[in-house]
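Hey,

Quick one before I head out. I ran the complex with benzoic acid overnight. Inputs first:
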Amino acid sequence: MTLSTWTIARIARLGPATARSVSVERDLPVTMTDGTVLLADRWFADGGDTGAPVVIVRTPYGRTQTDVIARLLAERGHTVVVQSCRGTFGSGGEFIPFFDEEQDGADLLTWLEAQSWATGEWLLFGVSYLGLTAWAMKRRSPRAIGAMALAVTSTDFRRAVIWPSGRFGLSNGISWRYGLRHQELTGIHLRRAQLLETRTIRAATRDGYAQDADIRAFGEPDQPYRSWLAHDDRDPWWDRIDFDGEGDSVPPLLQVAGWYDLFLDAQVDDYIRIRDAGRPVRLVIGPWVHGSLGLFTNALRETVELFTGARDRSDARIWFGGVRRWVNMPAYPPRNAPTRWSLGADGSLTQSGSEMPEGAAGERELPDDGSPAPAVGGRTLFRADAGRKDQRAREKRPDVLTYTTAPIEHDIAIAGWPTAQLAVAGSDGRPWFVRLCDVSPTGGSSNVCDGTVPASDDRDLRDEESGERRTVDIRLSPTAHVFRRGHRIRLQVSNDASPTYARVDAAARPRLVFSDTDGASGVDMPLVALRRGRRPSPTAGPR
Ligand code: BEZ
């Protein structure tokens, strides 16, 4: 045990180590079917074969980045093999994100099967891109995998990262490429790149346009970025790296997610699909952005529990924002009752069944302010923009419309996906973005969850309906939140949330149209009953 594994084991509240010392063999060469040699490290407990399954990790970020995790697992009896993806940290070939992981993963497994120290049972561990390499390996060899422990990742990076909700993920794309392009620098050069990161990404994405953002960031075209932009989310080019496959072939699975992580939406969809296929899957969602310390320590503890304990657990551990509380439940979301709040032209947000205020009917126009409305928080890889943020400056902009309730008289708990319907006219191919916020009694507004739809869907509809009023449906990201008594609920509506989503040009000013009949534009919220000290229980209505 080292000081760092001892400290992390305490912070993460891991069970006790079973081995006092571990060894590592570095730079083991593994030859792929095309002759390329990839390097791997093997960690194992000293003192003989423990018989425990081998944990496999495949990473493009450098094997030493996972040293602590590998050592912690080896201290608990596992042999851990960490391989560098091709083209990274000494592995041969070129790193072309996504496309080689299935074959290279299968080749690693073939090599492992021939090793005398391998037990023949494999466990996969992966955070983010390492999770993609795990899904890729599982697709080729589903029956050989004993369990998978994954965090902030998805079977479908096209949908989760590059084209989230069908819009180009500008800050995800540039941030990820920035990290990858600089990660093998050393010393002062690495430090300089790290210091310049936020400023460079901010400058490259300031106008919100995806075109040439790579040249603005890196001074030259970046080939992977260009490929992603050239193939939109409907392009079959991506199909080969959609690893969702058959839900019923998924081994016992742990999914750790963050409410403010870019993978949230796609990861919860993975969870639902696998759970509905009847496979054991545990879901943990905390108040985290990509890379939060809490995410790391919780993922570690849950991974050790999965790998060393019961594998057939199917349940959920969910953090409720607003009351800052963990709640255990059999499945997420708990049964809930979608309840509608209507938007009014006077900026009101009124629960269905209540009387609409005078002035609620009418129209509001959404001007184009020249610069795109900034994202200010939410789900992105770009750390400067990610998470829960003060929304007041965003809400002052003319191109961000807000709709707010009166102070609420009792706590309102929601869990699941809010959905918004906007009755719009003359929107001329613009995308839409809506965000649900919690407004404190002192006026502070913070983002709870949000969702967007792309311009292209808008165009299809416009063609069909010749610019007439029509309804845009938007699914917000999943959430679990309690709006406390005295707080207000707010919905923001804008076209842009930049640079999380790339900007598109559109000619006309969209109008939001309201009518005096309740519900022309509104948001359906998945209400649950949350009792103090108890798990959320179903209210009436469908799940
Ligand atoms: C990651 O490994 O952290 C990552 C990879 C691709 C996109 C976003 C994040």
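Residues 128-129, 161, 172, 176, 381 surround benzoic acid (CB under 6 Å).

Talk tomorrow,
K.
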